[in-house]
Amino acid sequence: MKLHTTNYKNTFIETSEDIPVSKAEIPPVKHNRTLANIQFAMITEHPYKFTSDDVMFECYAEKNDISLKDRADARRDFFSKGQACFRSSALAKRYGYGIHHNSEGKVAIFPMEGEDYKNLVNDDAVTKVKAMRNKRK
Q: Which of 37, 80, 86, 130 is the most buried (most CB within 10 A)?
């Protein structure tokens, strides 16, 4: 069975062109954690520890109450189909965070108004892609 991936290497996902904020915001916590809450917590608490695949699967596992003993099989099933990558994440589309994938594919996030964000945008050694737009043109 072919396994798909959401991982990038040496890539920075910039905020979407039509982002509704001018400064990064922490995703608000509601009754149940949203995908943005899970992603934000994992990445800010452990920058460059997880790959995109790790984060995306953890979101799926938490939302679907997958037990620890069932996760290996569930992960294989999850990645047997193509999955949305961080270009479609609310962190980059709504909340104002750029997502950097280092040379190992591990991720960290940076607020759009920050110096690190600007440095990554201007770094020629890093591939840049924009997050997906919120609305069609």
A: 86
Contacts of 66 (CB under 8 A, 6+ apart): 60, 74
Token duo for residue 17: 């062109």
Q: Which of 85, 82, 87 is nearest to 98 (CA)?
A: 87
- 25: which 2 tokens? 């915001």
pLDDT digits (tens, 9 = 90+) for 28-54: 988 888 999 999 999 999 999 999 999
Which of 132, 115, 110 has the alpha carbon at shortest distance from 40? 110
pLDDT mean over 44-66:
95
- Distances in Å between the alpha carbon of 58 and those of 4, 61, 123, 124, 127? 16, 5, 30, 32, 26
CA distance 137 to 128: 21
The 10 Å Cβ neighbour count of residue 126 is: 16
Inter-residue contact 51 to 107 (CB < 8 Å): yes
The model's pTM:
0.91
Whether 3 has a pLDDT exceeding 90, the answer reads no
